[in-house]
Design goal:
Structural class: mainly beta
Oligomer: single chain
Strand content: 15-25%
Number of strands: 14
Length: 196
């Protein structure tokens, strides 16, 4: 049986350049991978979906481009996923995000994500933080967001969501941050917002 010890890579907050390193699949003991706040470019390697014990994947604050690899769905132990800030991805959030059943924090702010938030996000029962502000989401708010009952912080500001504020949000009893500023929402402000 394969086991893991905590192995962490933390070359963060430096001036590193070039592509993200392609870590060979034999390095299965990685638990924490922090590569944020550098000048790394290229795309997220598909090989990053091969770490069976990875808990933290942090690549925010770089100059990454391309698509978010669907193989990230294989990271069944992932708890924190930070891909935002200064990266400019060319894809939306894949429906496979619903496979990340242990995910607690997802930060995809300011990285040109578009289209809509997939309904499969409702499978993330442990998610308490969802930051997707300053992107290009342009469809209706996803009703399934209201099923994330562990959610404490949600920021969807500075997008182009075009719908009413969802009645399903009334189920989010733990919310302390609820930001929908600067979208194209319409309709009445629901009564439940006064209880947040």
């Amino acid at each position: 049986m394969t086991t893991s010890t905590t192995v962490t890579s933390q070359p963060l907050n430096n001036n590193m350049t070039g592509d993200l390193p392609i870590l060979v699949s034999e390095m299965t003991s990685f638990c924490h991978l922090y590569l944020d706040n550098n000048y790394l470019s290229g795309s997220i390697p598909v090989e990053y979906g091969r770490f069976p014990f990875l808990q933290y994947l942090v690549v925010s604050g770089n100059k990454l481009t391309g698509a978010i690899p669907p193989k990230i769905r294989n990271l069944s132990t992932l708890q924190q996923l930070y891909i935002g800030y200064y990266n400019t991805f060319s894809s939306n959030i894949h429906s496979e995000i619903g496979n990340l059943s242990q995910l607690v924090q997802f930060n995809g702010a300011s990285c040109r994500l578009s289209d809509s938030i997939p309904a499969e996000i409702s499978k993330l029962r442990n998610l308490d933080t969802l930051f997707l502000q300053v992107n290009a989401f342009a469809r209706a708010l996803t009703t399934e967001l209201g099923y994330l009952k562990s959610l404490k912080s949600i920021d969807l500001s500075n997008n182009m969501f075009s719908s009413e504020i969802l009645a399903s949000f009334a189920q989010l009893k733990k919310l302390t941050i609820f930001n929908l500023f600067r979208n194209k929402l319409h309709g009445l402000i629901p009564e439940f917002t006064g209880n947040l």
